[in-house]
Amino acid sequence: MGLDQRQKHDKRKRTKIRLSKLYSYACVRPSFDVAESPADVGGPGFSRVVFCNQAERHRTKPFKYQSNYVSTTKYNIVTFLPKALYEQFRRLANMYFLFTAALSLTPLAPFSAPSVILPLAFVVGVSIIKEAIEDWRRFLQDKNVNNRKVKVHAGNGEFLDVEWQNVRVGDVVQVQKDEFFPADLLMLSSSYPDGVCYVETMNLDGETNLKLKKTLEATLELDGDDEFKGFTGTIRCEDPNPNLYSFIGNLEYDGSVLPIGPQQILLRDSKLRNTQYIYGVVIFSGHETKVMQNAMDPPSKRSRIERKMDSIICFLFIILVILSLVGGIAFGIRTKVDMPSWWYLRPDDTSNYYNPDKASLSAFYQLITGFILYGYLIPISLYITLEVVKLMQARLINQDILMYNEETDIPAHARTSNLNEELGQVDTILSDKTGTLTCNQMDFVKSSIGGVSYGVGITEVERATANRMKKHNKELNDMALNSADQAADGEGIEMIERPHVKGFNFSDSRLMDGKWALEEKAEVIQMFMRILAVCQTVIPEENDEGRISYEAESPDEGAFVVAAREFGFEFFKRTQTSVYIRESDSLGRKIEREYKILNLLEFNSTRKRMSVVVRDQDGRIYLFCKGADSVIFERLSKVGKEFEEATKLHLANYGDAGLRTLALAYREVNEADYEKWNDLFMKAKTTIASDRDSMLDQTSDMIERELILVGATAVEDKLQKGVPECIDKLALAGIKIWVLTGDKVETAINIGFACSLLRQDMKQIIVSLDLPAIKSAEELHDKSTVMKVSKEAVKKQLISGQQQVAVDGGIDTVFALIIDGKSLVYALEEDMKELLLQLATKCAAVLCCRVSPKQKAMVTRLVKEGTGKTTLAIGDGANDVGMIQEADIGIGISGVEGMQAVMASDFSIGQFRFLERLLVVHGHWCYKRIATMICYFFYKNIVFGFTLFYYQAYTTYSGQTLYNDWFLSLFNTLFSSLPVAAYGMFEQDVPARVCLEFPSIYQQGVQNMFFKWDRILAWMGNGLIGSVLCFFMVLGVFGQGAYRHDGQVSELQVLGATMYTTVVWVVNVQLAIATSYFTFIQHLFIWGSVALWYIFIIVFGFMSPSVSTTAYRVFTEALAPSPRFWIAVLLVTVASMAPYFTFIVFQRRLAPKDHHILQELMYLNKHATDTEMWFMERKKAVEKAAFGFTARVDARVREIRKRMHGNAYNHQNIGNGGV
Amino acid sequence: MPSQGASTSGVNNGTSTRKDSKRPKSSAFTQQELPACKPLLTPKWVITIFMLIGVVFIPIGVAALFASRNVVEIIDEYQTVCVPGRYTTNGEREQFIQDVNQDKHCNRTLTVSKLMKGPVYVYYQLDNFYQNHRRYVKSRSDKQLLDGNATDTSACKPEQYLSGDLAIVPCGLIAWSLFNDTYNISADGQQVTINKKGISWKSDREHKFGNVRPQYFPNNLPRDLNGSLIGGASLDPNTTVSKPFIVILLNEDEDLIVWMRTAALPTFRKLYGKIEQDLAAGSTLSITINNVYNTYSFGGKKKLVLSTTSWLGGKNDFLGVAYITVGSLCVFLALLFFLVHWRYPRRLGDTKYLSWNQHASAN
């Protein structure tokens, strides 16, 4: 095994290329930036010493550093109990119950101590167990990470697999391609002889482009296992800190002291890419690594509803205090005034609790008794029931097969269950781009060559738009749509099914299989292909089957080379100086051609283009150039402009379809000109000065002129499956979407188009600092001026944006705000925040580009706090962690790699598209369930609690309860909690499909229709009515006389048991009326609870009188044989339901809500029988969507109508907008 | 749009996927697609429900009202008339009651207006008497009542011990304050037997009260205590502190058992006995009351009640009236709903009421 690998390595080494040759800019950069040698190493804050390859020296102090064991759990065995208990009793209600439990041990308690303490212990116990299980899961996840294996030098040049947790500071490790670094490493060498390696820092900053790291020259030679036999060295560096982008330290090696900068540091949780292996020394391990230093403690989030619930509990608490006060005062007065004459109470010989001589003291004691007694107003089981219900909801979310991602085998996962209902109230989604909306995979889909557009493959947006358009066709029958739209449906040109090639999604029979040679402009096509194949920096790799695969720095380039290969221009070999292409000529023969690379003019964001200067086999020198269309078009020669108009048109169409476009051009350079230019270029390249970059730019610019346009490419930044549909649905549900991306403005806009966030007729307000004024200020290196100018510029742009919105804003005009990270720095400052938010909320789409993870979190906070609405952040990388934790709800996409986002999230899903179901179905349901459930909880406790209070009035507020102690303590747990739990778990107002078909019903949650104060108070009022009816009707029905045929009169036991029976019936039937979805579970629980009460009272009644006391045989002997009991229960139940029932039937009749009508339509089976009406309603049932393809289609239809009516335009432009 | 069918058919495919797959187990339960009944309140149902309630409730109400009306009840409030007229205030009356030397028998004459079919139940009714006061309710020892010797009778304070160390059985305020007025009834000169057997609950007699001999009970003797606290005459003149002999065992003392089952409300009736014969209409009842129980200190009324029962128990119009009210209210609501429905018809599932269509018309 080991031998095999060794051989493989050797084989690879032969094909190695010195990348430094390839990259003119990045690698040969003179090392002046590390020259600022850290003078303060060894000083305070820079005390760390690492003995390389001598990990054993780190076993003792002072060099004993933290182990590489990483723990993200909240508790450990010791802290668990105190911490968890603290968490529990932080809740107001639990605190109150703890207080009552303590008081219940005194004679003040109106009932026995266990009946108070047991429910509390149960409630708190279950919550703590739940906490423990959740933490255990986190522990397992940590364990998984800690047990990953990495090769560690064990001495004598031998490397052994070691678990991550056992990697120590000072260890030399070997990390293989596509592995994560186990700790922060100093890189010593790599598989490349010049000691570079590629690192993907997705998990740190979300950027997917690879970063180049480079070792110190001195350690270059340490590139084999054996080299480490006697290797030693000492690193002195900074102490652990969270700064990802800086590192200060030096390495004492081989007798010299070498400065180390961030260039040499490989950070934990980043990944080795495109490099076979690297060797490195562990500097920081475990929690001292930069990534862990960055980790915040996950904030404990509480849903809006739960927070509001607290204020309701406060409200009830105030009522409770008022009731106790009333009771206490009334009791005091009666004790003072009346009690002395009640000889049967022996007022002459009493305790302080009932002492007429100390009435105020007795009143105070009574107040406390009342305080405990009326505690039934505050539902003790609410929290626990909520937790159980939410856990079940979370399970249902986890098990939803429609949110299971088949390809990656990832189901949806609710990681915290206390935000389920918040999912139903989301107002704004803040989304990451790469990995969330897009796959970070580029597919070559279209091209425009010589003024002809090729490629009939259509993007997701186009497909979706076309489908939507088709449905509009009925309406637009007369307004014949341009044939271009039909072509988009793939009807125009025959499509041939072929196996999918990664990076290539192009189909057009005119170009494939060498048929291009038959096209009219075959030479132009040939040149186009050649540019694709040659003008790149990709490294080819031949695998065992002889097939070439490519290692590209950016996925775009990979797509180009793949495309060229598929067209028959296979790039198969690269040497230090040449690129080899296997070309098929016009006759279909394969010819190998060599192109000598003379110069490579790299891409950067200012140049927006890249070129190669090559010499072909015939000795002619060409410059091949690809770049942004605007840049290329201004560099064309007169003859080169032949296809400019046609290409421009195609580019516009591609752009609208969300494709990323580049223009290709070339020029032939004569020998003499080239030599002259090359001298200049080499001079610039070897300059060691700070303006080297701009010199290179200038010289490059000199040759990139007089170009001849060949065509343009269109690459699709492949969207994740179902993204446009999902975004559309979310738009229809009235949810706003902000995209926060680390990408460039252009890319972001592209993706904006691709996922229908943007469209042609939107007015884009771009706030950016790419302004000449700023540039010139920057060149002066005057930081304060730059800041001042920048801030002014941003402010100006924001204000002008607002003015624009104010002036142009109409029904049909929508705006999109695009702002870049640099501007955000200023826009997010305290005094500008409001301005930004105001503008942003008026825009239909907001794209923030080039934002740092921290800015993502700041923007999220701005939206969350500025609008006061619920925000949801979704992302997949470690760079999204901040925003995921900041938002009200954080959603992590569990992708192939990187767990940070998921670990920080509240919910994780396999793909963005599942967000639709998560919000619109589960969110909607959970919101309604929880909202109604909480209201109902208050209702039932008010019904029950107030009967206790009314009874007090008849006992001079002495604290005597009507019910048996056991009845009291079991009410909340046994006879009324299961049905409401079932409601909370399974209730559906409308089925899932209707939620999805009518997404605007989601707005019920956003507008919080079911948990506003009026609704809560209405439920409480209903509870009050229920309690009055229960109490006074039972009193009235029983009266003083006989309640049975045998002359027996009712007393405390009979009255208590009867009233309790009616309360059990009333609260359960009430829930049954409120339920609109009865499965056997609901039936079982609702009717089961009522039945359970009867069973309980029978069984309990047969227990020894010392246990059952007042309930002894009360049902079998006293109640059951009495017809009055039964018809009293019937009367009270029906009468108590009447107000609510009347209200809902008249509400449904006169002012029906959406879900009422939808229920009726479902009931009438209209969705099956009257599909047309159903479809029409679905179409109308949308919030006014400002983005998404529905909005896009609407805009198109509007445009067409305008043209038809206005007749001002000629017909040829119609429909061109989309394809 | 994935239909319900599609997702359930996914179940079958699911089983064939790889073993360690995290694919959720799909069932009607986990996919929240259990067969469910979704009752919908259509106008037809609403009217039916309201009408049905009306149709069921009104007859029950009428029947209850009839039952109540058929009950013959004679109530005689005697706390004032049974005290010689010269005692005008409650304070004076209280003093009269507490004077052991006064004869407190009083004769009342009542006329039976309607035939009272036996059994006729005899009740006493007290008013403004807080048997449900927490101090009072708790003041008993169930254990002692059952087996006579309870170690802990602290709940009974201050009626726990007599003269410091003599355990009172039954202890506590309830037993101590036992109602002790007695009634003697004759109809048209004929002595009427009042059956005192079977007036208490069987379970009480058998399981809550044991074969326990009362000790130092009753003890509310006027001469032993401060006069102001006395309940009335001696319950049993033969019992004294020095002579605590037994009268009847606790489980045979049904008056006590009835009294010990505390009333829920400050106004209550308790069963005194049963007259197992008919009382003919027009017959005159002459009743001798031994009026000894002190309700005068707190101004409570005392009433003697003779009542027959129906299948629903005693006289009480509330049940019937409530049923008729609720029933007719429902009929009214049914009509109202019908009228609303007829005047402003709304088709079931009328899409124009959907919020989006409302917005449209508002614009």
From TrEMBL, chain A:
Catalytic activity: ATP + H2O + phospholipidSide 1 = ADP + phosphate + phospholipidSide 2
Binding site for ATP: D432, K433, T434, E557, F603, K626, R660, T741, G742, D743, R850, K856, N879, D880
Signal peptide residue numbers: none
Active site residues per record: D432
Domain called P-type ATPase N-terminal: residue spans: 50-113
Required cofactor names: Mg(2+)
One Pfam family recorded for the sequence: PhoLip_ATPase_N
UniProt-listed InterPro entries: ATPase_P-typ_cyto_dom_N, ATPase_P-typ_P_site, ATPase_P-typ_TM_dom_sf, ATPase_P-typ_transduc_dom_A_sf, HAD-like_sf, HAD_sf, P-type_ATPase_IV, P-type_ATPase_N
Protein name, entry field: Phospholipid-transporting ATPase
From TrEMBL, chain B:
Residues covered by region (Disordered): 1-29
Membrane topology annotation: Multi-pass membrane protein
Key words, A-Z: Membrane, Transmembrane, Transmembrane helix
Polar residues: bias regions: 1-16
Cellular-component GO terms for this entry: endoplasmic reticulum; Golgi apparatus; plasma membrane
Bilayer-spanning residue ranges: 45-67, 279-298, 318-340
Family: Belongs to the CDC50/LEM3 family.
PANTHER family reported for this sequence: CDC50, ISOFORM A, CELL CYCLE CONTROL PROTEIN 50
Name this polypeptide is given: ALA-interacting subunit
